[in-house]
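Backbone-to-sequence.
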């Protein structure tokens, strides 16, 4: 799995090919925190080097009998089975002794393999060629095992750098007789075959992945010893027994269920034993769960679906009453709602504080009301003559289609002759010729609209003329054509 600073993944960073020390590319990586510390006796340092294969999938210890000093990330040529192999240095110095002590390896073991030299270009070329054979060999070996109807799963194939040996890692629930399989593999790949069985958790560590917590799997980064995990660990931690949520990518229970188990067991020592059932006057209360963080025990009555939290002291008191043959009148549960603090809305909000939407809406409404009042005051202060001119309809050529006619209030009552236009207005409009044998329209707005429709060539010239105003004498009585105007 490539990290953000390595060239094995998509992002290209330090170009160290998995030895950057972040623990992402090189699985089971260990940070050498003793690297930069000076030592008085340099000759008495550890001469054993930890070497990893297939990016930490497998690690082993080799003795450095050369006079060279190797750094983390360098490729070295090692002793192999009737040949040589190439590996990557993962740890050097005094920290190797701690790792050997943890894994039970004797530093003075005479059978420990040795480092031959620093890898040459020829060694690296052979190593690359053999690594390119591994994917095809894995697919072919799986097909052969299916043909032989063997109940096993081949998870990984590792070739030696010189191509003389191949190690096949497999998982199986029962014992598998693969003697015939080894003969076929030896004739198919022309190598010495070694079959090595691993567990389901180790197989998941070789594959790698991301867990439900969002981090890399523990078995592929740092976890080496796998302890048995049971559902009892989930019950102690008040977890629901759900196989889907409690199972990891290997199909077994998650190893992290054991991480906090000791803490829960220590905290549960303060809780009373034999408190699964409490006898009350309302019935027997059954224990639902134990809360080690609040030191509460939750009970449920038979005729109710509510859960009642009780303190440890109250539970012990009820147990003493039951031992005397008495029943408790009431459970006296703890009121958890009264301890919650209510959120108070501050009267004054600072500039760096939170501003609610209601405050913004209220301010916006006040601003709109103020603007509406200012517009109304300006309209009242306008001169009366200007407002009348605004109420006058536009000229004949300027009136738009679809607008309402503003002079509908001067319509004459029924039984009377409609008012005629003043002479001054008729003289100004004398240039417009009405159609023959048709009486003039009684209303100016309608006549203007009709003249506009009947005289399309003169319409653009009329639009260019300035608007005409009526005589501002409101006392002139309406008169028809031929009558005198008083």
């Amino acid at each position: 799995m490539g990290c953000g600073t390595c060239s094995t993944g998509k992002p290209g960073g330090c170009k160290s090919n998995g030895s950057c020390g972040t623990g992402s590319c090189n699985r089971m990586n260990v940070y050498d925190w003793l690297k930069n510390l000076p030592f008085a006796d340099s000759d008495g340092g550890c001469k054993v080097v930890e070497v990893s294969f297939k990016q930490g999938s497998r690690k082993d210890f080799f003795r450095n009998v050369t006079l060279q000093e190797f750094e983390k990330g360098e490729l070295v040529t090692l002793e192999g089975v009737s040949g040589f192999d190439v590996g990557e240095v993962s740890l050097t110095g005094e920290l190797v002794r701690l790792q050997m002590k943890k894994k039970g390896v004797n530093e003075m073991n005479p059978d420990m393999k040795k480092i031959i030299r620093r890898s040459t270009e020829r060694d690296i070329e052979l190593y690359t060629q053999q690594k390119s054979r591994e994917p095809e060999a894995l697919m072919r070996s799986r097909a052969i095992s299916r043909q032989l109807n063997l109940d096993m799963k081949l998870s990984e194939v590792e070739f030696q750098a010189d191509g003389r040996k191949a190690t096949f890692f497999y998982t199986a629930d029962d014992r598998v007789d693969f003697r015939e399989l080894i003969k076929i593999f030896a004739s198919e790949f022309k190598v010495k075959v070694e079959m090595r069985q691993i567990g389901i958790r180790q197989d998941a560590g070789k594959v790698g992945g991301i867990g439900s917590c969002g981090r890399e799997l523990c078995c592929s980064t740092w976890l080496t010893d796998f302890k048995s995990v049971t559902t009892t660990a989930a019950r102690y931690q008040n977890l629901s027994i759900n196989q889907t949520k409690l199972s990891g990518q290997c199909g077994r229970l998650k190893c992290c269920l054991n991480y906090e188990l000791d803490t829960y067991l220590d905290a549960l020592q303060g809780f009373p034993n034999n408190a699964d059932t409490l006898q009350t006057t309302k019935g027997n209360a059954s224990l639902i769960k134990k809360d080690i963080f609040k030191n509460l025990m939750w009970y449920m009555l038979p005729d109710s679906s509510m859960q009642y939290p009780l303190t440890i002291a109250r539970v012990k008191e009820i147990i003493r009453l039951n031992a005397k043959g008495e029943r408790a009148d009431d459970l006296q549960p703890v009121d958890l709602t009264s301890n919650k603090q209510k959120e108070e809305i501050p009267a004054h909000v600072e500039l760096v504080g939170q501003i609610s939407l209601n405050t913004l809406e209220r301010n916006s409404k006040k601003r709109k009301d103020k603007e509406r009042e200012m517009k109304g005051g300006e309209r009242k202060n306008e001169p009366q003559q200007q407002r009348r001119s605004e109420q006058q309809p536009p000229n004949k050529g300027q009136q738009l289609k679809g607008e309402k006619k503003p002079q509908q209030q001067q319509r004459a009552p029924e039984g009377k002759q409609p008012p005629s236009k003043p002479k001054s207005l008729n003289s100004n409009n004398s240039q417009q010729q009405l159609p023959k044998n048709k009486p003039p329209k009684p209303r100016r707005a309608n006549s203007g609209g009709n003249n506009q429709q009947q005289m399309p060539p003169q319409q653009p010239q009329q639009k260019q003329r300035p608007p005409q105003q009526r005589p501002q004498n409101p006392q002139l009585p309406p008169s028809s054509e031929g009558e005198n105007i008083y």
